Amino acid sequence: MGLQGLSVVLILVCVQLRNHVTCEDPREEEEHKGHPAGPGHHHWSYTDVLEWGQDFPDCDLGSQSPINVDTQNTTFDPHLTPILLSGYDLTAADSLKLENNRHTVVLTLPDSLKIVGGLPHIYQAAQLHFHWGSRRSPGSEHTVNGKRFPGEIHVVHYNAEYESVELAANHSGGLAVLAAFIEEGSEDNEDYEHLLTHLDEVKGRR
User: Fold this and answer.
1) Which of 87, 135, 152, 199 is buried most, with the most CB atoms less than 10 Å from its CB?
2) E strand residue ranges, 66-108
């Protein structure tokens, strides 16, 4: 299962910065009674983005994810260097752990997968997880020109200076996430078919 085989629309790199937090997609939580969205609650939704900062100052528009990429207002920066990956040539023989964490499916990745260029540090892979939609809503967290895609893959990496992803998460620049949009196509993606065909068999975390 080669991770490079995925056909993507856009790849984003989200690096954890000081006072920068990721506001997780709450749409699945909204369906559960007792967890209403909006200010004053520990869950929120994309319908009240302008009010996020009232209860969660770190999510006050200037420093939160997800974002909308407005291509009309983007500027090319020639000083940015390409993102370079190492070890992303896994084969079908590689055995990886796939788990249901009750929010999404998480694929544990070997730390031999790394981001070795384009960022100020070397980042080791920790896990890969998915965000997908339902009949009522597409599933990508980020958008391009307001368009939300059917799904999005996040490959979570941590700064190799730290011993674990848990330790790195507490530090500025500790995490880097590669995000890729998923588009629907007329043919199956062979590299991911092995994983997707077994989703119904994935056991939940105890």
Assistant:
1) 152
2) 68-69, 84-86, 98-100, 105-108
Mean pLDDT of 43-54: 70
For the residues of 132-163, what is the DSSP string, one character each?
E--SSS---SSEETTEEPSEEEEEEEEETTSS
Q: Using one digit for the tens of pLDDT, what is the confidence trace for 146-158?
A: 998 988 999 999 9
The reported pTM is 0.73
How far is the C-alpha of 166 from the C-alpha of 19, rounded, in Å? 17
Burial (CB count <10 Å: 0-12, 13-18, 19+), residue 166? exposed
Annotated catalytic residue, options 35, 41, 42, 103: 103
d(Cα 52, Cα 5) in Å, to the nearest integer?
37
Of 67, 72, 76, nearest in space to 148 by CA:
67
The tokens for 57 are 């100052």
Q: Can 103 be counted among the known catalytic residues?
A: yes
Roughly how many angstroms between the first and final C-alpha of the chain, as a whole number? 27
Q: Which CATH architecture has domain 3-20+76-201?
A: Roll (3.10)
